[in-house]
Design a protein that fits this description.
With 354 residues, the chain is an alpha+beta fold. The protein is built from 15 helices and ten strands. The strands form four sheets. Strands 1-2-7-4 form a four-stranded antiparallel beta sheet, with helices on both faces. Strands 3-10 form a two-stranded parallel sheet. Strands 5-6 form a two-stranded antiparallel sheet.
Length: 354
């Protein structure tokens, strides 16, 4: 296929992606590179913690052709989301806890996957040849950020997030593997410069250096991915975070350029991502009162389900220990006297702090 035909076809793909509600779209090569191969070294250094699933499919992460033979192009899409507005928080709430700003009224995986699958269906109908596509939204062995940078959506910053010069780093990514030959975009250039705001602000020193995250020390990992106990040496630094962490994004100068709600949302995708009012600065007293049935009901459709009931209670107990609120002692004592050894140990730690 000639270059003009590939450019014309790529233009149609991008127009479709934008029409489906995405804010950014770029196309790049699926070829392995030094960036994709780094994942193996990263796992070998122990930076993945207990996320064994990364190492088990590391070959596919290095080379997408092992995931989908015949892949010729990677179509990468981005959808920006907004953090809670200051007036939506509850500063007067007693002993609130914090959750990551991407916890919307609907799980972002579902919100992103619907239009991504629709894009794949459209691409499969675009060419008389047999066209294959396969889409992923943070759920498969695909290095989304590597390909997002290669496709020009932004650069992979010192905190390892993708940063768009206008949208900042609060952007969900989706990747569509495609057997179509398409014209590729130019990679984004790095604009972090000498800034170290994200590295210096991390309370648990999770960055081994610029661009290298030791996930086993990251609050997002310890509160979401890990099913084990939180290291005692890290607990005080968790502060009131009970699901994820936004600190390295909050301090990033590039995230000050976009005001909340200043982007169009013709198909209502962003409206489904607005911060969940149930969990914006939720009170620890309420969270620690939840049994498993109440937890299932209050997390229905929410990304918070990823941490499971036990994980959220573990995290809330650490936040309670950091709260300085003796009024939480009765709630914490219930877990200290309970049968779950992991929660009981975290509860005893919290009681000592209180």
């Amino acid at each position: 296929m000639g270059d003009d035909a590939k450019r014309e076809r790529a233009g149609r793909v991008k127009a479709l992606a934008l029409a489906l509600g995405f804010d950014r779209v770029g196309i790049c090569s699926p070829e392995p590179s030094a960036e994709t191969r780094f994942v193996r070294e990263w796992v070998d250094r122990g930076y993945a913690g207990t996320m064994g699933y990364i190492g088990r499919r590391v070959d596919e992460r290095e080379d997408p052709s092992l995931l989908m033979p015949g892949v010729r192009s990677m179509v990468v899409v981005g959808l920006a989301y907004d953090p809670p507005r200051p007036e939506s928080e509850s500063p007067s709430a007693r002993s609130p806890m914090r959750v990551a700003s991407y916890v919307g009224v609907e799980d972002y995986h579902d919100v992103m996957l619907e239009p991504l699958q629709a894009l794949g269906t459209a691409l499969e109908a675009m060419d008389p040849e047999a066209v294959e596509t396969r889409g992923y939204v943070d759920t498969g062995p695909v290095l989304e950020r590597v390909f997002a940078a290669r496709a020009g959506l932004g650069w992979q910053a010192k905190n390892t997030c993708i940063i768009d010069r206008k949208l900042g780093s609060r952007m969900f990514l989706g990747v569509l593997l495609c057997s179509l030959e398409l014209d590729f975009d130019e990679p984004a250039s790095d604009h972090c410069g000498t800034c170290r705001a994200c590295l210096d602000a991390c309370p648990t020193d999770a960055f081994e250096g610029p661009y290298v995250l030791n996930a086993s020390r990251c609050i997002s990992y310890t509160t979401i991915e890990s099913r084990e106990g939180i290291e005692p040496s890290l607990r005080a630094d968790h502060g009131d975070w009970a699901f994820g962490c936004d600190i390295c994004q909050d301090v990033c100068p590039w995230n000050r350029r976009r005001r909340a709600g200043d982007l169009p949302d013709p198909l209502g995708l962003r409206a489904r991502l607005v911060p969940d009012p149930r969990w914006v600065r939720a009170e620890l007293d309420w969270v620690l009162s939840l049994d498993e049935e109440a937890w299932r009901e209050s997390t229905r459709g929410s990304a918070i389900r990823r941490t499971r009931y036990r994980g959220l209670m573990r995290n809330a107990l650490v936040a309670a220990g950091n709260s300085g609120d003796p009024g939480l002692k009765a709630r914490v004592q219930v877990f200290a006297d309970g049968e779950d050894a992991l929660l009981a140990e975290h509860a005893r730690w919290a009681l000592e702090r209180l």
